[in-house]
Amino acid sequence: MNFFLRSISYILHPLLMPTIGAIIYFAAAPRFIPEEIIKAKMFGLMVLTVFVPIILFFFLKSIGTVTSIHLENIKQRKIPLLLQSILLIVVIKMVIDVYHYPELYFFFLGILFSILSSIFMILFNIKASLHMIGISGVTMFTIALSIHFGMNLILLLTALMIANGLVATSRLHCKAHSNLELILGFLIGVIPQLTLVNFWL
C-alpha cells in the first residue's frame, strides 16, 4: 500500500495534467479535427508542458535551486512555477488557437491562473498542493466538456473523482501536505476553470 500511494504522486503528477486534459478534449470534441493536427498539437503541448519542464528541473537541481520534483519546500517553488507560467504563456500564444480550440485555450488559461495563484500564495508562505490543483482542474474541465458537448462522460468523471481522492490520500500519506493545503489546492484548481467556463460553455 505504501508503494502504491507513493506511486500515485508520480503517476498523477501535476506536469502530466495539461497533457491529460488535452487528450480528453481531443477525444471528446465532436467537431472534426484532422489527425495530423491533433498529433502536432499534442507534440507541441508535451514538449512545452512535460519535456522542457523536466529538463529545467534537472538543471535547477544541478545548481541546487530545487531538490525534489514534487517541490515540497515552499521556498523552492518560486522559480519552477514562474518558468512553468512562461511556458504556459507560450502554449496559449503559439500552440492553442482561441478561435479553433476555445475550450482548450481557456483550459490552459485556467491552468496559468492557478499557477499564478500558487505563486501569489508563496509570497505569504502558504503552500497549496500542486497535485490537487492539477487533478481538480482537469476534473472541472471534463465536467464542463460533458455539459458543453452534451456527452455522457460518467465513467471518465468517476475515474477522475477517484483520482482526486487517491491524490489527496497519497499526499497525506507522504506527509507532503496538510488537509488545508489539499483543500486550497483543490479550490485553486477548480475556481479558475469554473470561472472561465463562462467564456465558452
Question: Could you please describe the fold and organization of this structure?
Answer:
There is one protein chain. This protein is mainly alpha-helical and 201 residues long. The chain is built from eight helices and no strands. Helix 5 runs antiparallel to helix 6 (130-148) and helix 5 (102-122) runs antiparallel to helix 8. It is globular and about 45 Å long.
What structural class is derived from the secondary structure elements?
A: mainly alpha
Number of strands: 0
Round the Cα radius of gyration to an integer and report it: 16 Å
Strand fraction equals under 5%
Distance between the termini: 40 Å
Helix content: over 70%
Low-confidence stretches: none
Helix-strand sequence: HHHHHHHH
Q: State the shape.
A: globular
Please state the average pLDDT score. 90
Largest sheet, strands/sense/barrel: none
The oligomeric status of these chains comes to single chain
Number of helices: 8
Keywords:
201 residues; mainly alpha; 73% helix; 0% strand; globular
What would you say about this model in short?
By secondary structure, this protein is mainly α. It has helices spanning 2-11, 17-28, 35-62, 78-95, 102-122, 130-148, 154-173, 179-196.
Give the secondary structure arrangement, pairings included:
Blueprint: H1 2-11, H2 17-28, H3 35-62, H4 78-95, H5 102-122, H6 130-148, H7 154-173, H8 179-196
Helix pairs in contact: 1-7, 2-3, 2-5, 2-6, 3-4, 4-5, 5-6, 5-8, 6-7, 6-8
